[in-house]
Predict the structure of Indoleacetamide hydrolase.
Amino acid sequence: MQSGIAALPEEASPGAARAALDLSFVEQGRLLRNGTFTARALTEACLERITARDGAYRAFYAVLAERALADAERADSELANGHDRGPLHGIPVGIKDLIDVAGVPTTADAPGRADALAEADALVVSRLAEGGAVIVGKLATYEWGTVGPDKSGLFPPARNPWKLDHITGGSSSGSAVAVAGGMLRTTLGTDTGGSLRGPAFYCGVVGLKPTLGLVPDTGTLPMAASMDHVGPISSSVAEAALTLDVIAGSQASRLIGTSISGLRIGYGRDWFAQDPQTMPCVLAAMDAAMSTLSQLGAVIEEVSLPDYPAIEVAAAAVLHKESFDYHAANLRDHPQDYGRRCFLSLAAGLALTDEEVARARRAGAAFRADVDRLLGRFDALVTVGALTTALPAAPFEKEAVWTPMRTIGFNLSGHPVLAVPVGFDDGLPMGMQIIGRHHDEARIVQIGDAFEHATDHAVQRPPGLS
């Protein structure tokens, strides 16, 4: 089923703009260009909705109304003068609070960064501005991208719109919640071990982790430099791809709407089918998703992926070592700048030896080579995103818990990965990963878009928002 585009009512610009908030930003852009409403009206409607909903969802650390309205008025002026900057022109966008927005604290939800004003926009934010986007706010994160949800940070943790007492799934929590809660169509997040994809799985939205290095991280707080990725979390595959095109100068959207008939897809079922943590509903949803791709003409073949526990251990070692090295001096000299759980997570890297880290990097290189060999035979690989639906938040708020996802290996290998909803169980979303060759984002977008249009998962809305 294709994502629905409802007809707009015959009413004044503010009412039309409010009605358009639930349309894709492609359709919003069409209506901006034909004069149905202005970018300012759309932005005002967006700000009204944030005010109405975010008290429950807590996605936003800062709502930048003044900047947003200025951005919107500039967008309107430029369109009136025939200057069209592209698909994000006049579209509201939110930014994870590990990414700099000029004049606003980049807090990382850390006690020591409440007043850490950014002097300039991060390069990705500058690219959004150059594309005409309207920057409306800074979005929730786990402290320094580490563990959560944690109530000891600067702000209360974001809440999953599907069930408010369940986890959001990772540090790009506000980015996914803002989209799932219907407050924004697209946002920016970061992903070092699954922090972009996890919230997409658990909140029922789309996450696109690009090839390592494709999107510049200048002006983004690091976690582990060799594994950090910046990418979009969006309402649909097309919106994620178009957002990536703007921040990366890529052509991720170039195959949208084309047939996947004849494409060869390797199904990594062995990564989760026999795992005792895998919920039966997740296994059933994944098998059904493969059936859908087969019905669309793709050739599906089960494949054996490299041992997941081994690559998870290796990737975690690299992540902990690099994050500790970045923070070591400040952990020693200013421990009060960190919440307790974040401090302990970062300090874990102290115990790793150089040889252990070197061995982990070799394991990462071998994993990358193994995946590359599989991608020599297949156009893409597909496997599960998380073994469960979003779990209750209460245990995570007491201590650090490693969520059962299958994500972190692709941070070490750098392959592009698209996270797409595959169904729901007991009112909670489930998601899969589509993995592609390096710099072949267009192929995984093509597959994800075809799947999305053949199902109704992407048009589902949390309770009260249907």
Residues 52 and 217 are 33 Å apart (CA to CA).
